[in-house]
């Protein structure tokens, strides 16, 4: 066991969470208007994580043994990821489109792994891999969507100038948003470049703790990282297209109407 599950662990986690909240509050993390205060969000996130993991730990013990329940749990993960990503990207009703990049990234990769036999159709294998891929798609969608919308807002004049030069709505917005949205790939790229040198990710450590050899653990971790790069690339591309076509818009924007 990597960490003992006892009272000491609970106290240390509570102290670390309190430290994060205090630092965020002291540094005034958030926007200038105070509409978002990250100290409060950190506290809520920590409490939610504890509650959700407690419930999920009980649920997974049941669903991993029944394939229909396993598939239902995967759908639940995708739904929660879409809801979270959409509300992180925009408060506009168009947040629902965030489900598309996540599904487009995760489902084809999962299907390919299942069809080739690399991933057995068993809950004990399917749920962890689906969770890792969904988490990567969630992060990429949020970063790409937020950066693209922020760039379009800040450089609205350049979009209008491109339209005046004859660019279509999609092309004008894509030209401005693409460089910023592409930065969403940086965390995944850095994680892959530095694996084994800076970090030993969870899949590798988990395989070692389960008794696998370092070579087997390394192969599984490499597979996870490569799959994540594929998922995140698809998610960023899909998010960028949705923003460029006006399907995902910010609260202060109007959707393009000419070539959607």
TrEMBL record:
Q: Where are the transmembrane segments?
A: 6-29, 97-119, 125-145, 195-213, 219-244
In the UniProt record, the signal sequence range is: none
Which Gene Ontology terms of cellular component type are present? plasma membrane
Keyword RNA-binding among UniProt keywords: no
Note the Pfam families from the entry. UPF0014 (PF03649)
**Which keywords does this Swiss-Prot/TrEMBL entry list?**
Membrane, Transmembrane, Transmembrane helix
Topology relative to the membrane: Multi-pass membrane protein
- Primary localization class, coarse: membrane
User: Where does it live in the cell?
Assistant: Membrane
Q: Which InterPro entries match?
A: UPF0014_fam
Question: Does this entry carry the keyword Amino-acid biosynthesis?
Answer: no
The family assignment reads:
Belongs to the UPF0014 family.
| Official protein name in the record | ABC transport system permease protein
Source organism per UniProt: Streptomyces iranensis
Taxonomic lineage: Bacteria, Bacillati, Actinomycetota, Actinomycetes, Kitasatosporales
């Amino acid at each position: 066991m990597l960490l003992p599950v006892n009272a000491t662990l609970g106290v240390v986690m509570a102290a670390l969470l309190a430290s994060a909240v205090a630092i965020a509050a002291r540094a005034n993390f958030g926007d200038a208007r105070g509409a978002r205060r990250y100290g409060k969000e950190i506290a809520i996130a920590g409490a939610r994580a504890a509650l959700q993991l407690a419930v999920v730990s009980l649920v997974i013990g049941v669903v991993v043994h029944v394939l229909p329940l396993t598939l239902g749990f995967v759908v639940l993960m995708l739904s929660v990821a879409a809801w979270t990503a959409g509300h992180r990207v925009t408060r506009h009703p168009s947040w629902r489109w965030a489900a598309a990049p996540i599904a487009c990234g995760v489902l084809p990769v999962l299907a390919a792994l299942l069809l080739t036999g690399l991933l057995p159709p068993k809950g004990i294998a399917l749920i962890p891999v689906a969770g890792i891929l969904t988490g990567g798609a969630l992060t990429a969608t949020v970063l790409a969507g937020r950066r693209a919308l922020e760039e379009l807002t800040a450089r609205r004049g350049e979009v209008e100038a491109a339209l005046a030069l004859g660019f279509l709505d999609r092309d004008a917005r894509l030209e401005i948003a693409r460089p910023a949205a592409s930065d969403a790939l940086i965390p995944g790229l850095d994680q892959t470049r530095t694996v084994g040198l800076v970090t030993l990710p969870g899949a590798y450590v988990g395989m070692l703790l389960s008794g696998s050899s370092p070579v087997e653990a390394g192969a599984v971790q490499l597979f996870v990282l490569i799959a994540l790069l594929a998922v995140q690339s698809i998610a960023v591309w899909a998010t960028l297209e949705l923003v460029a076509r006006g399907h995902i818009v910010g609260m202060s924007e109007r959707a393009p109407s000419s070539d959607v």
